[in-house]
Design a protein that fits this description.
The structure is a homotrimer. Chain A contains 20 helices and 9 strands. In chain A, strand 2, helix 9 and strand 3 form a beta-alpha-beta unit. In chain A, helix 11 crosses helix 12, helix 13 crosses helix 14 and helix 19 runs antiparallel to helix 20. Chain A is globular, with a radius of gyration of 23 Å. Chains in contact: A-B, A-C, B-C. The interface between B and C is large, with 51 and 49 residues.
């Protein structure tokens, strides 16, 4: 039976001098609290604090990194227990799902999922053998047993993980009742929301018009008139602010922004609300871009940090979308342009000290060519950490190597885990801290940075920068 | 006289711990037989088994990596003995051609050609001095003398190189008589063909209509009717299957695929066969993309593995094309989009267990952004190894670093040498094995992978994965 | 007080064997004279040889790398003493400007500016403490005092820096009186010009028509007729040649070249000179591309080496342009295509032994995909070194790793400092020498290159290649 080991030097460069330096830097930041300013955990976990159901429900079914890879190896999603909407029967036994996963755990070699999962197995559940088909059931039993104990309830894990603040992400239509319940409960964990209005800013979203109607109902505004719509958004932003939100988040297909005159915007809004029949793809693009500009304008007033995450072709596989719905691992990045796209917004608000704009990318070519030069000039703009497919050791290394020389470290904002896989949060932050310390160690060993500076930066990247950038 | 040395640790990382680990991994795979599932050797070599003519004919004139670089340094192609079609006299003395090369061997410093050629000189011919102008004639004499001996005939070298299977590439119009001759000869070497139908799928190919007519003649089908054309292709695929082919290969300008209705396809085919005058570039693109879809459909039935190699601007230099023809080193990659391009094919067949689709790229930006995410989701899709300009130590390193974290190792297919430079085949596989072991060694040293797993993967990347993916 | 140290091993890889090798290679080239074939120093400095005014005027106000980063951290450009054109008062006290910089020197951690500036502080001015707010005034005083002494006058520094030749860059309208003054002065320093005709080749330049008129006056040609315009350009090229120029430099938005028939060109020129109202963006693009072709044609006759630097969106921030003018750090690279763009020029002149075409990029994706394959085929084409945002340790490493395997070393041209920050010139060349030696050392340690070859190449990259490519 192969042993499961988390080596204390994992992810540090192999060269002994650099490794020693990385270890020294890491030791000083390894224990810092976790700032998680951007993620997708379910706030109900912390409101209700009921036990997580079982290993498959906890670790496989919500993790698109995991089921995506199993799917690529030929395991149909229904065999992983994902519920279908077309009547395909879905595997109901979580233990069978778990075995499908365990038998194929070798597929994750060389991926960050392997690092995160091994950490969860070893650190959270105390497992001592590497996951293989042979120990699938033993794993299942051990995890299932642990989940029934108080120490594995959501709040207990939150505390054990030393999370200082955790942001979830909600639609403007969300009543935020879980956040309210957490606040009322007297529990000291800080779980805040973030304002994610894609569904009411993007006319291409399937329920756009219905969601606008609902937005109007919630706010008492006429959200089908342009001015009422803007007031309704301001109203919801204020509501989110009260529930602790310090940021907005925008997952648009492109980074396009547009600076429309008010009457032009009003005419476009009228076309947008008349519905899909009269709307061209360009109209939708301009409207989304105009609304990013409006979001920036509102941020000047309410101080919410603005995040843009563009450049994904969502739901690439039509059959998967039809049968299993969105967010099933079939999203694929595309080449993304930032220089012309962000020009209207940066020209209008990029030097305004009231705005913080954090930009993410899935197109790594933009790090050195577009994003670092933009962030290295505009005071409002900062670079988000490597994201989604690039939230990995090599991805993090490329980000630091390609962005730092032009943007510096101080135009970056630390780490985001961006995950709904709650148990992996400490592992993800730990990977980022180790990789950043490895990068800084190289700079020290190559005499490009002094040790005292590297210590300051290691702490900044692990804790201070995120806390400051997200105003936490 | 500088010595020619092939250091046993060549290409391994310099850090002692990583190097030791790389050496250990490499030693276990260095002697595995060569699986060469994609290449461009001439099957006549193995059918006829006559001696290779002379050093220039063997090592310079067929190797576009070599004459391209000499051309870039100002040596006209005619001085390298390449035959011209415009009456320019071409250097007839192979020894003079060899000297041109030897005098400029320093140009190859830092390139993979240098690694491959040094291996051929040292390992195949036993030469002990580094190639310079001073030893040009001594090299020439030694190689020429060796080539006259039985041990240097094609079949003897094939056996000495420990090649388990070698795939060549032929047009559907090829009678495959050399493969038949090999089969009849009783020689045990396995030389198979691959089905490369670009000339009869791409209306922009110069002899497209003539080749269609010929396709009809060979198969007894009316290849100028759409249905007859499809039957003719199926017919030739079956013929290739009988000659051992397990794969098709498609070198299109883009990765575009299209899913046309049958009647739409039939109308387009009618326009296509009426000829260039009535055909727009978009028509040609749609037709090629539609035929990739047809090729995938046929693969479901006959099990042939499908390979797509897009993204080259062929024959960039008009004068070179006019004077020396195609494949003269003037092909240049261009930015290539995969996400929208492959969507029709992947949406239709990407989850079909009967299809294996291997995708290559010359645009390295697509590794992490497009190809790894696609291969990491669709069961049918695998990533081809770094290809052509990127079939090099740094190119291989970038591929592993950029593709592995999202696609894993198991969505890749091992190494292809893709070469017509027969003598370099073992050197190319050796470079790949060394680089892959170096990459795996780093993962082990950084505690991202256990040693037993690295051993399995080293073997997979060197031998098992190619054999399985190409159904050999 | 933290110490300011320039470690003798700085920028060398951490692995001991590679570091030892890098050091050995570097020691042999560290003292070679500086060839600076492309830069933006003011020739008046060497003509007049008056003292540099003060630390802020010398090190901050002319250095867009420096004020761009301070601006990104929220320091308005007027507080850095940059003169505005809209009446905004600008900080007049250079010591106050200096303190703004010193207080924020940590922003430059991890950037090449930090390396260059530390070198200037330690080597040029002998400062022994790291720059922080605490020593801002001590720095200011020490630098200001040094600048009043003869050893810190421009010519003395030029000699101390061991500059063999320094090229400045001038418009065709420049009378080159400073170069004439230098020549007449009897001073032995070689300061030559380079021909940068963007203002009279690019119809989108703001003063295009006025500059054409001025070109006509200077040359006595009718520069508003096409033939007179070409003669005027030839005339100025000859004038620049006499003042020592060996190269032309072209900073176009794209790399597009066009091969127009003479009458077509003449008609386009007529439209171009009628002015902006009748000219489309496509017309301007075609005209610029046609004029690159004309520049290449003229280079065949006069032997001037041709440089193309495409791919920047200039003046991205409209407010900064309006208030402070051009070149204020708000230039941002964009994706740049070379394969189709350069085809006309390379098809016509790419094999002409009279032409040297040096191509630069700000889009690093083109290194391996487009530029190395083109330079690895066309005799005329060479790759310029990593430029502007990529003129940095990691940028240089990526260039060598991505370009060398296809283009080789011998299709590259050594280093360009491309700077107007005169004091940083030795530091920039030193960074390039160290990084190139580090790269070569890795090749030697990995047994991909022999030591004698690495020594030759180290010298080539540091000195010989630039001297030869620029015909110096």
């Amino acid at each position: 039976m192969p042993e499961l080991r988390l080596h204390p030097d994992r992810l540090f460069p192999g060269d002994p001098a650099t490794r020693t330096m990385a270890r020294e830097l890491y030791e000083a930041v390894a224990g810092l609290p976790i700032i998680s300013p951007h993620g997708h955990c379910d706030p109900a976990w912390f409101a209700d604090n009921v036990p997580f159901p079982n290993p498959a429900e906890l670790l496989i079914k919500p993790d698109h990194y995991v089921f995506r890879m199993l799917h690529s190896a030929g395991v149909p999603l229904e065999e992983l227990g994902l519920p279908s909407s077309d009547g395909t029967p879905s595997e109901a036994d979580p233990r069978v799902v778990w075995r499908q996963f365990a038998e194929r755990y070798h597929l994750f070699r060389g991926t960050p999922s392997r690092l995160w999962l091994d950490w969860v197995f070893a650190e959270v559940f105390g497992l001592e053998q590497r996951l293989t088909a042979d120990v699938a059931d033993a794993y299942y039993d051990a995890i299932e047993a642990a989940l029934t104990t108080p120490a594995f309830r959501p709040r207990a894990l939150f505390e054990r993980f030393n999370i200082e603040v955790l942001a979830t992400t909600e639609s403007p239509l969300d009543p935020l009742e879980h956040h309210a319940a957490i606040a009322k409960s007297g529990w000291s964990g800080r779980v805040i929301t973030a304002f994610r209005p894609d569904n009411v800013l993007d006319p291409d979203q399937p329920d756009f018009r219905a969601d606008l109607a609902r937005l109007g109902e919630i706010t008492g505004e006429d959200a089908l008139s342009y001015k009422g719509y803007l007031r309704a958004l301001e109203n919801r932003r204020a509501f989110f602010r009260e529930a602790g939100a310090t940021s907005t988040d925008h997952g648009h297909p492109t980074a396009a922004t547009f600076d429309l005159e008010p009457d032009e915007a009003e005419r476009l809004f009228a076309r947008v609300t008349r519905g899909a029949g009269t709307l061209t793809p360009a109209d939708a693009e301009v409207f989304r871009g105009h609304m990013l500009m409006q979001m920036a304008r509102m941020s000047l007033d309410d101080g919410m940090v603005m995040q843009i995450h563009p450049g994904v072709t969502r739901n690439h596989d039509a059959a998967t979308l039809r049968r299993f719905g969105r967010d099933k691992g079939a999203d694929v990045p595309t080449a993304t342009e930032y220089v012309q796209a962000l020009k209207p917004l940066l020209n209008r608000y990029g030097a305004d000290p009231r705005l913080t704009l954090i930009v993410f990318t899935l197109d790594e070519t933009s790090y050195s060519r577009e994003l670092a030069p933009l962030a290295g000039f505009y005071p409002a703009m900062k670079l988000g950490p490597p994201w989604w497919f690039h939230d990995s050791p090599e991805g993090m290394r490329r980000f630091r190597e390609q962005a730092t020389e032009t943007a510096g470290f101080y135009n970056t904002v630390g780490f985001n885990d961006d995950t709904r896989a709650f148990l992996s949060i400490p592992a993800r932050h730990d990977v980022a801290r180790r990789m950043d310390c490895g990068f800084l160690a190289r700079l020290v060993v190559e005499h490009r940075l002094e040790l005292d500076e590297a210590h300051q930066l290691a702490r900044g990247l692990a804790y201070d920068f995120a806390k400051a950038a997200y105003k936490l």
